[in-house]
User: What shape does this take?
Amino acid sequence: MLFKQQALLRQKLFVLGSLAIGSLLYLVARVGSLDRLQPLCPIDGRFGPRSQDEIPLRALQFKRGLLHEFRKGNATKEQIRLHNLVQQLPKAIIIGVRKGGTRALLEMLNLHPAVVKASQEIHFFDNDENYAKGIEWYRKKMPFSYPHQITIEKSPAYFITEEVPERIYKMNSSIKLLIIVREPTTRAISDYTQVLEGKERKNKTYYKFEKLAIDPNTCEVNTKYKAVRTSIYTKHLERWLKYFPIEQFHIVDGDRLITEPLPELQLVEKFLNLPPRISQYNLYFNATRGFYCLRFNIVFNKCLAGSKGRIHPEVDTSVITKLRKFFHPFNQKFYQITGRTFNWP
Ligand code: A3P
Assistant: This one.
């Protein structure tokens, strides 16, 4: 009898102990993630009045995907009123450069509790048909956010499209502009690889990179080839500088964003006057993927799609040398204008 009672007592103690340990673990995990994500975001100056410095905790739920529909721009009138949601024009735009790492940059910035990304490339300023629909159309394409959060969109075609600087200037002359660049020859090959993959998907054949990048008549670099032209960063930037002072641009090192993303993101946080909230916790290296992936919290993490980080075809070394020599003077000018120097050959 006594033995039976002791066994029963032991069983009860075991159940109670398990419950206590379980609750403790849950609390540690919860407090840990809340602490890290505590969304006190004094966004200064242009980004909102001081009285709105604090992002309510529900902003986190919103950001972490519970209100997923809102982020896509879908919400009922009741939800908008209840959560005090707005669709805001972007305070910062990633204007390029194509294949520089624009998607990675946007997704990583979106880790910040005060940043809300426009998931799709809107192509408002570079597409005449879209632009003709007016600024309200553009605003309605933005995700819902809290008034003191900032919206960021990315459309890499903006950087190289003639009309875009003036159009963006007309919308907001003090907007912040982000440009992410990679070593120009690597970027051109990445650009080629994307087009090649598109052709292959449609069972089409395509020229070799060497054939496109080098003019067969002159044996010089083919400046008519778009992938080459896009990599002449200084030429495009000079057009932008007719409208915006250099202080309104921030140059992100796309090669470093691949290998060491955190310091690059911290520079962007500073440029956007955001308090530092993105930490090493939010970024982990995924060996299978070969890239850094994103960790939002204890349960939610993600890597970029497989279309980011393609294997590049092998390119003749003499062509690479020729391209690097060609880009060299343009790069020097780019360093001079931007005040950011890269170790490009
Ligand atoms: P590659 O496919 O040449 O490797 P964009 O988003 O502007 O199209 O840029 C795509 C590039 O982003 C990829 O080029 C890849 O190298 C780079 N990139 C940077 N960080 C990445 C990340 N964390 N995951 C995947 N790709 C990343």
About this structure: Confidence is low (pLDDT under 50) at residues 24-62. Strands lie at 86-87, 92-96, 115-117, 144-145, 150-154, 176-181, 249-253, 283-286, 291-295, 301-302. The CA atoms of residues 226 and 268 lie 28 Å apart.
